[in-house]
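FW: tagging you since you asked about this chain on Friday. Here's the raw sequence from the shared folder, copied in full. Didn't touch anything.
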Amino acid sequence: MFLLALSMPFWSLGHPLIEVDDARYAEVPREMMVLKHWATPTLDYFDYVEKPPMGYWLDIASYKVFGVNEAAARLPTDLLSVLGIILLIWTGTWLFDFETGLLSGIFLSTSLLYFFLSHYITPDLPLTVFLLGSFSLILRTLLNPQDASWAVPGAWAFSALAFLSKGLIGLVFPGGWAILSALAIPALRKNFSLLFKPRGILLFTALLFPWFWTMEKHHPGFFKFFFWDQHVLRFLTPKYHRSNPWYFFILIFPLAVLPWSPLALSGLWKGISEIKKGLSETSLAIWVLMIIAFFSISHSKLITYILPVIPQACLLAAREFKKPLARWAKNTTLGISGIFILASIGVLILIHTHFKTKLIPQGLPDLNLNVGCAVAVLLLFTAALWSFIFEKQPPSQTIGPKIHSRLWKPFLCAYLAGFLGLYAFQFDSSFLSAKNIGGFINQFIKPGDLIYTDGIYLHGIPFYTQHPVDKVLNWTGELAYAKNLKKNQDRFGDDAAIKELPIAGKQVFIVLQKRDIVPVLKMIQAKKMSGNRIYLSGPWACLDIY
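HL: got it, structure written out here
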């Protein structure tokens, strides 16, 4: 079972890059490698300095060894996800016992959000793994001060790597959690000062300073943009249009840790309710609650942000494995499973309505297959939750000749749900990936031809065509920093650029949404146009104007 769990991140390594983040974070390191820029990330050959470079550096190394392809782009993410599983097993083993550590690793590999993000490139997974390393070594220092000589530098090093993965939270989360834990648990206070050994702080500085100094030197004003715009304004204002209700992550948390939600919620409650006992579970609960509270206050909320709590939640779940579920936990689990059943019925009604009235637009993928997979995944998670509700008694042991149903039933359900989810995506990748449009462009593009995007920006286009998007029309998105630089003004535009088409002697490929095909064609000077091709892929289209 453990080996099956370790294999899960490597399923379908080479599936097409998903818009938006998956494609973006595969393309940025490709461009850095082409341009031989180790410091400055670029997207579509614009300076793209929103995120630190740790993930990009790992992908560059992978590209140099395995070539530029989807599997090579995802390999560092997959290896890091395995590292996270191993780190959690190690943490659970020294903090509690080997059985707890092993269980927590199995839980982590099969938890919904961790599984998904091991197949989708974002900075959140490297951040989570490095934060877990820092968390574990800080706790090791506070509980076993005799290990401070190596644990403290290690904790600071992991914190620096987390900082280089996604920014300031690489320091804020471990530091804030250490302070809160010391305040809440008296046993941790006496060794708190050990965390500030000069060797650890110097190592942290040495790992961070070169990149930040280089960026500020070559991009004056970088510090202000990176720390003020990308951290302070993203947290305090809705500038980046990622707002959700304050309770968003409270609802997302039990879903993110599926199918182990009942055990994770029970463990979290124990850590909170028994805070006066100073248990190790309390330090885990503080980590989970602190991050959920942090992002609940923030004006920027995406589902992936909650990933750093999942390892600690899985460790709390493992601690509850041999214990009976409280009535409130069973009732909560029953409520979640009820929602899944209602969702399954709703999807089936929707598809029935489609076939009867054709309310759903034509051109969608094979709805039979997609609905079947979606309903199957919902029912698999329902079955996993019911295995907790209706079990006769919890297991008396974790490791033994017979695997208890509390372990193998949810594991099997999660295993099958993951397989079905990946299968359904590959079947309908044209609705989530720019690969097909990139293939169309590659059939006809010649040196000197141009690629435009209008109203959208598919990050996979440069990756699959090895050609930049020459003009970005009626869209800004993640390229706001680049658009504000004078040197890039001619690469952004609006409808005026479309009205200038066609261009003599050049093909212009315009990537846009299907609904915009007719309005765009009306703006083009038809009398001067020799011809055009139209390629449709999912919700998008590509016009070849010549």
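FW: Residues 327-357 form the longest helix (31 residues).
HL: agreed, and DSSP finds 23 helices and eight strands in the chain.
FW: great, closing this out.
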